[in-house]
Amino acid sequence: MEQTTDLRRQIALYVLCLGMLMIVLDATVVNVALPVIQDDLGFSASSLAWVVNAYLIAFGGLMLLAGRIGDLVGRKRVFMTGLGVFTLASLACGVAQSPGVLVAARFVQGAGGALTSAVILGMIVTMFPQPREQAKAIGVYAFVASAGGSVGLLAGGVLTQAISWHWIFFINVPIGIATAVAAARLLDADEGIGFRGGADVPGAVLITSALMLGVYTIVKPAAELGWGAGQTLLLGAVSIALLVAFVVREATAGNPLVPLRIFRSRNLSGANAIQGLSVAGMFGTFFLGALYLERVLGYDALQIGLAFLPTTIVMGTLSIRYSERLVTRFGAAATLLPGLVSIAASLALFALAPVDGSYLTHVFPVMVLLGLGAGLAFPALMTLAMAGAQPSEAGLASGLVNTTAQVGGALGLAVLATLSATRTETLTARGDSAAAALTGGYHLAFMIAAGLVVAAIVVALAVLRPSPLQRRREPAARHDASAQACSEAV
Which CATH superfamily is domain 2-187+257-466 in? Predict the structure, then answer.
């Protein structure tokens, strides 16, 4: 009976991760197809970015709210709802024949993605309460959540070149249906804690408005007009004011949407800060690294996807086979640090790639180090982020860590892309060749990305504390050492 239960939980884990993979893939699979979509539907150069931005605004803006709703009304219910919305919106994207329809469908798709992905990590830690099996399950989840972006580049290139851009959306329909059928049978229903004392509608409006406006400010005026532009500063100030109002509301509400006590956990707060900094560096590097391969080395879409494949393979091997052993043996904080060091080293090494660089010499080592670091760091980060949350707040913690990743990624991409473009313009004005100017811009971005990860290392050293599992192991280790010493003395 116990073996049957364990098998059911393992299959349920794979179903949840399949749903997560579908969501993560969609965040990057579109990037490769953008030029074809522009030609086919007649997007202008300025409006094309909204194919990506519409998704990011809904996805990042609703993530925290979706996670908390899962705690209140049941995570399975929210997961199934999000899966249905995402699948139907994917179908609408695939059949879109005009820019307006595609952008609107992408916004709805982002909302469905937020509902689906926000509760998955909370469901996993509830499903696997024992530390060792939980660490292993989180390792599988972290691999899917982290490596899905690079897999999306490869899948986008294959589908766009082999069939058409419509199939980057159509492929979600059978996957979504199969995932929903399996989830309905395998996932245990949970009722949630309910709306005791009423629903915090003002808090929900404030946090959703703050995050959506913040993501919009990052991906639109900041990226296009610059960080010092009046529109950027105004919208940024309004977003921060809404966030402050939300914090005040949660501190005084009788039944807050986000209980602020959750941030008393040093590991939870520290893990989210580290997540934001490290993802900001890595996400921008994935994007700019792909541009370096395309614009400087002349790679096509499929070659770019294959170039990132070593990162995915190394990350998957560590996350699935070894991360739980390392987290269980040494603790999440101790496992996290060498991972962050490896990521910082890979980004710094990428900043040395020359104009006439070769893949084996200048790119492959970067991809291996990046996969090694991500395979160690992100499972440990997920463990730390969830360890400080009560079971009734697992959805909130899950939504929080995903929100941190999305906002950090959007902010990192906007900052690194802007600084890279400015550096390229300066070098071009100085008389450098187009390839040399582009490479110089990418070098600056990679070094700043490495600096962000170094800042994450500083936060980890200053804030994180040994996990409860590690603290339990340390007295046992001291007891074993004392017993051995007594034995030797006798």
Answer: MFS general substrate transporter like domains (1.20.1250.20)
What pLDDT is recorded for position 388? Answer: 64
∠ at Cα 224 (220, 225), nearest 5°? 110
pTM of the model: 0.77
Of 33, 20, 30, the closest CA to residue 52 belongs to 30
Q: Which amino acid is at 122?
A: G
Contacts of 68 (CB under 8 A, 6+ apart): 257, 258, 395, 396, 399
- Torsions phi, psi for 43 (to 5 deg): -65, 145
The C-alpha atoms of residue 180 and residue 263 are separated, in whole angstroms, by 33
| pLDDT > 90 fraction of the chain, expressed in percent and rounded | 20
CA-angle at 262, arms to 258 and 265, nearest 5°: 160
pLDDT at 147: 66
From 55, 60, 58, 57, select the one nearest 103 (Cα to Cα).
55
Q: How far apart are the first and last CA of the chain?
A: 48
Phi-psi region for residue 456, left (φ > 0), alpha (ψ -120 to 50) or beta?
alpha
CA distances in angstroms from 289 to 39, 233, 297, 346, 353, listed in the order given? 25, 29, 11, 12, 10
Residue 371, token pair as written in the block: 């996969």
Of 14-18, 22-26, 419-423, 440-444, highest mean pLDDT? 440-444
84-111: pLDDT as tens digits: 999 999 999 999 888 889 989 998 998 9
Question: Can you give the residue ranges of every domain in the chain?
Answer: 2-187+257-466, 201-256
- Residue 166: phi and psi, rounded to 5, are -60, -30
Which amino acid is located at 214 in the chain? G
Burial 60-89 (b: 16+ CB within 10 A, else e): bbbbbbbbbbbbbbbbbbbbbbbbbbbbbb
| Residue 84 near residue 78 (C-beta atoms within 8 A) | no
Give the ranges where 226-331 is alpha helix by DSSP (H): 230-252, 266-291, 301-307, 309-317, 323-330
* Among the listed residues 94, 107, 96, the one whose alpha carbon sits nearest the alpha carbon of residue 170: 94
Cβ 295 vs Cβ 405: under 8 Å: no
Question: What is the rounded distance in angstroms from the CA atom of residue 388 to the CA atom of residue 266?
Answer: 8
CA–CA dist 292, 362 (Å, integer): 12
